Amino acid sequence: MAALKWEDLPHYTYEDYKQWEGDWELIGGVAYAMAPAPVKIHQKLMGDIYSQIREKLLACENCEVLFEEDWKVSEDTVFRPDVAVVCNDDNENFITKTPEVIFEILSPSTARRDEGLKFEMYAAEGVKYYVLVYPNELVAKVYRNGGEGFRKVGDFRRETVSFERLVCDFAFDFDALFSRFR
């Protein structure tokens, strides 16, 4: 039996992706099935992150906070970040501009992709801040992209972090995010 080569795998496009049922991401033409419905803590954290940022950005007419919205990077790459801050993007169907900030809430089934593949690709696409939220540890790892890839800002449990040099800067209170789960 001949060994399967990378070139032999199907290469999907956005047109294929639009036809699929269920939750998927498309990265470099490779389809990635999303995990089953997230556990409750994942959903609660996502809602709380969204609500806190939305409140901070109410006065910002150029930016919006979105959750689980498709970000079409190219014809063969579509991400679906848990929470994204997007500015100056008028497309109503999906995100077309690089998000300024992305929050991903890790689960055992997504951790490798979130910490590896997405980490590298989000940095290459120019995402300014990437926040990895670890629900079991109640900690968030914040990374800032200074043009040379992501550099770690720190690990946060009870601190407030300022997200700066954005279209609309905002501060995020990790103590408020995690307090109800302690």
What does this protein look like?
This is Putative restriction endonuclease domain-containing protein. It holds the Pfam family Uma2. By secondary structure, the protein is α+β, with helices and mostly antiparallel strands. It has a single domain (37-181), classed as tt1808, chain A, CATH 3.90.1570. It is built from 4 helices and 12 strands; from the N terminus they run H-E-E-H-E-E-E-E-E-H-E-E-E-E-E-H. It has a 6-stranded mixed β-sheet, with helices on both faces. Strands 1-2 form a two-stranded antiparallel sheet. A two-stranded antiparallel ribbon has the order 4-5. The protein starts with 13 loop residues before the first helix and ends with a helix.
At a glance:
By secondary structure, the protein is α+β, with helices and mostly antiparallel strands.
